[in-house]
Amino acid sequence: MQSRHSVAPVSLTLPARRHSTFRIVWSILFILTFLGSYRLAQVKPLLLLEPEGRRNIRTFVTGMFPPDLSWEFVSLLGRPIIETIQLSLMGTFMAIVIGLPLGLLATRSLTFTGILNEWEIVDSRPSVFLLRKGTYLLARAILSLFRTIPEFVWAFMFVRAVGLGPFPGVLAIGISYGGMLGKVYSEILEHVNPGPLEALQTTGASRVTVLFYGLLPQALPNLVSYTLYRWECAIRASTILGFVGAGGIGQQLEISMRMFNFNQVLTLVAILFVMVAGVDTLSARIRHAILDRSVD
Question: Please, where are the H alpha helices in the chain?
Answer without folding.
Answer: 21-40, 51-64, 71-74, 78-105, 108-111, 118-123, 126-148, 151-162, 166-190, 194-202, 207-210, 216-241, 249-258, 262-295
